[in-house]
Each structure stands twice: as C-alpha cells, then as structure tokens.
Amino acid sequence: MEQVFEQLSEDSKDFWTPRSIARIPQPTPLEFYRNYVSKNIPVIITNAMDSWPAMAKWTNEYLVDTLGETQVTVDVTPFGYGDAVVRHSIVHTWHPLTHPFQTTVGTDNVFVMPEERSMSFRDFLAILHDPCFDGVPYLSHQNDSLRDQFPALVDDVDPMLAFASEAFGNTPEAVNLWIGDERAVSTMHKDHYEVRQSIAMQDNNDLTPWIPVNPLHPQVEKYPLTKHLQPLVVTLEAGETLYLPSLWYHRATQLTETVAVNYW
C-alpha cells in the first residue's frame, strides 16, 4: 500500500501540483478560470486590493475609533490551537468516605474547540496586546462576520473580487474578517469552498478522524506515509490575495499581527 501512496505522490508532483505558488498581477476572469480555477491550482494575486480604502485606513487606531464598543466574537484558546486534536490526561475522581482524591490513569486524544467570548472590539485589541492575558485571543468568527459584526468596515473593502466572481459565476456567500497574531494556528484541514483570502494588515470507525499531522514537522515514526508529503509554503505580504481552491489541505498561521479578509 505504501508503494501506491508513493506513486500517487510522485504522479501528483509530475503532472499536477506546482513546485511553488505563482505570484501574478490581477488576471482577467478568463485567465483566472483557465489557468487556475479549472486546474484547481492556488495562486497569489499581488494587486487585487490596491484600490481598497482599507489599505490606507486600517490601523489599530482607526479600527478602535471606528469599532470601539462594537461587540465581537473572539475565539480564546490556551495555546493558540483551535479545532484541534490534543493529548489529554484521563483523570478518575474517587470518593471514599473521608476525602475525595484524583488519580491520572492515562492519556487520550481529544478534539477541542475554542472558547467563544463576546466582548467589545476595544477589549479584544487590548487583550491581544496584553502579555499577561491568560490565553491566545483570535478574532476569527466565520458565517459572514465582516458584514454581520463589522458593518462599519464594509465600505472599506470590495464586496467581492470582481474577476473571481465573474469566473465562478456567483458572488461570495460569506465575507469574514480575521485578526490575530503569530500565536494563533489552524490545524491542517480542507475547505469545501473556493477560498480567497486577502491580507490587509479518540479513533472510532463511526466517526471521521481529525488530521493530527503537522506538515512542517511530520512525525514520520508515528505516521510513516508523511515522508511522501511535499508541502508548499506560502508567505502572504500586505496587499496580496491567495486563491486557495477547494479540497486543498492546508495549515495557516500569522508571522505577526495580521488583519485578513476571507471570501467564501
């Protein structure tokens, strides 16, 4: 079976996946569809955001002045990993007649999700910059968060990427605003939507197992097939847009404090 996976990896590299992700100026809808969408290949567009007011206006001061007491949904995690499989101690509590006590009987993999907290945008930015805050805050609510929770910012960005909407034949179902720093990390996953992200500043046969692999630091001894992985590493700069086709497995983090607009 391993030989099959090895051959699949080699064939994918030879006949489909690029050696690196191209950086191009904004394409026409036909160029975008023909060269990238139809082939299911990612690409970085370098100037799709040049006309956005957000590129000049979005600073921490402007965002606080504009949003201030606006209530936002913030994901908070202990170590920055949301929607992730983590190692968890199994603790049994015993209740004898005298004093209860606990004992650790082993460990297991558990799937954890972030705690969602509602707070003002001003408070979110304060805890993001507070080194004493216990946890990692990440403003990453989905379900059309830009238009739902940040209507005051809607006019600062384009409602869609026109060349992409014409190529797909529809407009985005959701536009999300994400703000975080280098501590927030997504685990490897895939999306069933075509994604356009713009940077502005326990196993059970009845369940679908989560992906515990970190493609940048694979545990080859534990997951031997990962030696055939050939990850593509992309660093987006301010003002650049990544087109990520559906079903591409990916893992994302920030290198510094980052503001991103995500179109689904």
Describe the model.
InterPro entries: Cupin_8, JmjC_dom, RmlC-like_jellyroll. It comes from Aphanomyces astaci. It holds the Pfam family Cupin_8. The structure is a single chain. The protein has helices spanning about 1-15, 30-35, 55, 60-65, 120-130, 145-150, 160-170; strands at about 25, 45, 70-75, 80, 85-95, 100-110, 115-120, 135-140, 175-180, 185, 195-200, 240-245, 260-264. With about 260 residues, the protein is of the alpha+beta class. It has a single domain (about 1-264), classed as Jelly Rolls, CATH 2.60.120. α2 (about 30-35) crosses α7.
Order of helices and strands: HEHEHHEEEEEHEHHEEEEE
Share in β-strands: 25-35%
**Mass-distribution shape:** flat
Structural category is alpha+beta
State the domain count.
1
What gap, in angstroms, lies between the N and C termini? 36 Å
The assigned CATH architecture is Sandwich
Q: Count the strands?
A: 13
Query: CATH class, anyone?
Result: Mainly Beta
CATH topology: Jelly Rolls
* Gyration radius, rounded: 21 Å
Give a short summary of the structure:
With 264 residues, this protein is α+β, with helices and mostly antiparallel strands. The protein has helices at residues 2-15, 29-37, 54-57, 60-67, 121-128, 145-149, 162-168, and strands spanning 23-24, 43-45, 71-77, 81-82, 84-94, 101-112, 115-120, 136-138, 175-180, 185-186, 195-199, 241-244, 258-263. The protein is 21% helix and 26% strand.
